[in-house]
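Summary of Year 1 activities. Much of the first year was spent building the evaluation harness for sequence design. The harness presents a backbone, in tokenized form, and records the residue chosen at every position. We chose the following record to illustrate the format because it has been used consistently in internal testing since the harness was completed.
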């Protein structure tokens, strides 16, 4: 509680990057580090994080029928996010908790808006309507060369979902879109080299969050 007796708003950190960049691993390590400092932490993910959004996740990653047209896909991501923001993220922030989210709206901007060709204006308009334009306090963008991430994913050996299974050109366009989003907003994004041991990457992330840490 602040001196005025008001609960301070928590911090909202989103992890972004291509598949296999280490977002889940680094989200877990960050949560452990914050809890060790006595901070309350919620770890969540997109698409998903609430029962409604997890139901939409299944529709997106294992689509029934012939797959979603790009506009429907963007609407489903925005609908899942609206539920997640309303039922989990905003309440946790209002309680003064730190929210660590594996992907958020910048994934929609990079995948559906950039690689999918819908454009940034359409995605930000959906986000303004669905989630009142909520932005993370900082986006941690994990970046690495395509070949290095490919080796990681091959070692993990999991089956690709409907979006992971798209061609290499699509994933290259996603990486380029993330780069331009970060270049356009250098104080909102921290670009982190995702290569090295998980502990080495974690150290870089803590340094990139130093100004937000109590
Ligand atoms: N998507 C979208 O299109 N639009 C949106 O708005 C949103 C999402 C929100 C979600 O899939 C898909 O939805 C995703 C984008 C799209 N598709 N793609 N591509 P997901 O959540 O199931 O998948 P993901 O976000 O791509 O996560 P991932 O593949 O699990 O990757 P990750 O979380 O970044 O990595 P990880 O699980 O922490 O690590 C991957 C492997 O590497 C694992 O075996 C680790 O043990 C290993 N690892 C991690 N760190 C290291 C280091 N430092 N060294 C070596 N090995 C490591």
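For this record, the design step produced the sequence shown next.
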């Amino acid at each position: 509680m602040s001196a005025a007796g008001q609960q301070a708003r928590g911090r909202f950190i989103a992890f972004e990057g291509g598949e296999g960049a280490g977002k889940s691993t680094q989200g877990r390590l960050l949560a452990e580090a914050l809890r060790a400092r006595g901070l309350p932490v919620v770890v969540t993910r997109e698409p998903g994080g609430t029962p409604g959004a997890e139901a939409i996740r299944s529709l997106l990653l294992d689509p029934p029928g012939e797959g979603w047209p790009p506009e429907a896909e963007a609407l489903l991501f925005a609908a899942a996010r609206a539920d997640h923001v309303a039922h989990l993220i905003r309440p946790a922030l209002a309680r003064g908790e730190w929210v660590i989210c594996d992907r958020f709206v910048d994934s929609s901007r990079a995948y559906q808006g950039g690689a999918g060709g819908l454009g940034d204006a359409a995605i930000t308009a959906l986000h303004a309507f669905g989630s009142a334009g909520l932005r993370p306090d900082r986006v941690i963008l994990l970046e690495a060369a395509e070949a290095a991430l490919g080796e990681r994913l091959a070692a993990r050996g999991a089956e690709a979902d409907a979006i992971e299974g798209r061609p290499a050109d699509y994933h290259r366009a996603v990486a380029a879109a993330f780069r331009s989003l970060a270049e356009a907003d250098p104080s909102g994004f921290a670009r982190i080299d995702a290569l090295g041991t998980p502990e080495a990457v974690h150290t870089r992330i803590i340094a990139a969050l130093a100004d937000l840490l109590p």
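The first strand starts at residue 12 and ends at 17. Quantitative recovery figures across the full test set are reported in Table 2.
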